[in-house]
Amino acid sequence: MWHDNETTVDYVNFRLVAKACAELIRDTGGEPISIGISGGWGIGKSSLVRMVASELSPDQGAGKSAVSTEASKYIVVTFNPWLYQGFEDARTALLQTVGDAVLEEAQKDTGLVDKAKSLVKRINFLRLAQLGGEVAATLITGVPVGLIGKVVEAGSEAWNKESIKEGIAAAQEVPGAAKGILDEAKPMSLPKEIQSFREALEDLFEELGITLVVFVDDLDRCLPKTAIATLEAIRLLLFLRRSAFVIAADDVFIRGAVRVHFAGTGLDDDVATNYFDKLIQVPLRVPRLGPNETKAYTALLFLERAHRSGQLDTEIFAAAKTSVEARLRETWTGKAVDLAFLESLVPQGNAELLGLMGLAERLAPLLFSASTVQANPRLIKRFLNTVFLRKTLAKPQNIDVDVQALAKWHLLERCDEATANALAEKVSAESEGRISLLRDAEEAAKDQEAKIQLPFGDKPFLREWLLLEPLLGDMDLRPILHLSRDSTVRDFGADDLNSAGKALRDALISARTSNDALKQQIREAGDVQSGLAMARSWEARRSSRTWQKAEEVLMLVEVCRIHSSAGPRAAALVSQAPVAQLAPGLVSALASCEWAKEVLTKWENDEQTPQSVKRAITSARKQ
Question: What ranges in 60-178 are assigned the alpha helix state H?
Fold first, then answer.
């Protein structure tokens, strides 16, 4: 399996972009610079940010590090506002992170430690002022803002109203407590303090001989309020000498956050765009993978998996990465990442790896062109994770199925679910799992002029999919569909619906509330027919399902209430839910169902589940 975390391992030639970005920072000569790395979800922004950081600081730690060069020493700080969301204001968190990094560096020079500590005190004052500015602070404390400095000097670390009052009283009793960065005789001007803070920070950078490089990542994961707060904090630190900001965010999301922030002001698209542009001097979009990069990326993922499992030597894997990197630098000259090149990356005679190289070569064009994938690195990983998980599940069930067939079928599931469902409905035990319609369509697809009958039609993707090896028309698809139960549940046995089962199926499709007539139908149909009718009615209502209404799971609840043997199948069906779309109404319908307990626990532990749903699950258990 492949993890979904950012990485400095480069499979798609991002390193060239990272080197160029790092060079921009080095070439500033101490002048400030801000670089915006933009791109959609999963495209590789975080990985590119880490590569840029590694170019400046090869030995960097988890959060910050320093690396010496002839001209400067870089203090690299990585700030992720998403981690602070809901716990601490992003603005103060960023200031504190920068202050801690500078103070740590100043510890190496005893002559500058006091200046660094003074800078931290300024940050503490600004954090306190975040409570609402000068006016709000005066209202809270009952004293001019200038006296707040005494609280900071006295070391108060609690920011609630009572603690502030206590801190001020303590400060007034301490001789000389107000001496330092704040003038006890005059009320403090917040604008002047901010400017003084910026000047002090610049001076400290100069005396330490450092350039501060701040990487801001995952900004587009934040709620609009947190995103804007972070940008405001960046603005406070931006354009200082010896400073550089690299901000990774989807610019489309930022424009949306700006609109939310300024809702009701009649903000137009140009203003929303300019807000971000004014912060960014050098805009940089993450390069989208092209057909060659998609082939190379997919092939290297296969090779990485083989290397982890011990099927491929470290030296051969390293040589493959080097060869791919070199080839991607030359694709503009016409040197393609073709099958011959991919096969040259693996030892001759290794039939499994050669087959996977062929699979990468065939899959890549469709992964590139399909609108549901569009060569997105994260989606490619998820696609392959599903395929190899199904392959792993096949072994203990004594199912012999080729990974290439699993990949072809999952590609159809991923990119055209309606066609996949239509084909799956035609798989039965009577035809030994073979679909004559699919076989005819694969044959027709070979002739570009031939018409392909429904459910395929004339979609370009489906024509390419039909031609993709291996051909599935003469293959028993029951094993593949059995392993695809993470996306749907199919019935292939000859025990199809009888007249009572069909009547029950239709009744379950139309039912919106429980009633005695429906319960009687379920009893009369028996457990086998009721289970089949339940699954068919569930499938029939797929297109209208929102995963929010209790009535949407009525067919599962009613059948399982009378026939407990249908419970495991019902649990498998409802576990397909996209947790981010769930609503509390669905929980109320499932809370009393024994068969749904594990599903509810899974939802409760999933970080993507809405908080309202988690609260509903907790409340239902208490009852």
Answer: 81-84, 90-106, 113-129, 133-141, 148-153, 161-173
17: closest CA among 57, 53, 48, 60? 48
The pLDDT of 46-52, averaged and rounded, is: 84
Find out whether the peptide bond into 470 is cis, omega within 30 degrees of 0.
yes
Helix (H) or strand (E) holding 75: strand 73-79
**Cis before 479 (ω within 30):** no
What integer pLDDT is reported at residue 134 of this predicted model? Answer: 43
Strand partners, 210: 73
Backbone angles phi, psi at 189, to 5 degrees: -95, 115
Place of tokens 């701040």: 214
Specify the pLDDT at position 144: 43
Phi and psi (nearest 5°) for 83? -70, -25
Give residues with Cβ within 8 angstroms of 498, minimum separation 6.
529
Residues 6+ apart with CB under 8 A from 325: 10, 13, 15
Taking Cα atoms as reference points, which of 537, 35, 609, 8 lies closest to residue 285? 35
Question: What is the β-pairing status of strands 73-79 and 64-68?
Answer: antiparallel
Please classify residue 100 by burial: count the beta carbons closer than 10 Å to its beta carbon, then call 0-12 exposed, 13-18 middle and 19+ buried. Answer: middle
Q: Which residue has the tokens 């801000």?
A: 34
- Separation in Å, CA 146 to CA 70, 179, 192, 195, 583: 43, 12, 12, 16, 50
pTM above 0.70, yes or no: no
User: Is residue 247 within 8 Å of residue 37, measured between CB atoms?
Assistant: yes
Tokens standing for residue 581: 């779309």
Could you tell me if 95 and 126 are in contact, meaning their C-beta atoms sit under 8 angstroms apart? Answer: yes
The Cα 385–Cα 66 span in angstroms is: 37
User: For the chain, what is the total number of helices (H) and then of strands (E)?
Assistant: 29, 6
Are 180 and 153 within 8 A, CB to CB?
yes
Conformation bin of residue 350: beta by default, left when phi > 0, alpha when psi is -120 to 50 = beta
Can you tell me the distance from the alpha carbon of 126 to that of 107, in angstroms, rounded to the nearest whole number? 23
Cα 454 vs. chain centroid, distance in angstroms?
36
What residues have CB less than 8 Å from 607, skipping those under 6 apart? none
Distance CA 250, CA 248 (A): 7
Which amino acid, one-letter code, is at 166? E
State how far the Cα of 203 lies from the Cα of 114, in Å rounded to an integer: 13
**What confidence tier does 423 reach under pLDDT thresholds 50, 70, 90?**
confident
Rounded Cα–Cα distance for residues 21 and 17 (Å): 6
User: 10 Å Cβ neighbour count for 467?
Assistant: 12
DSSP code of residue 111: T
Q: Tokens 């609402």 label which residue?
A: 132
Question: Percent of the chain having pLDDT more than 70?
Answer: 80
pLDDT at 410 over 90: yes
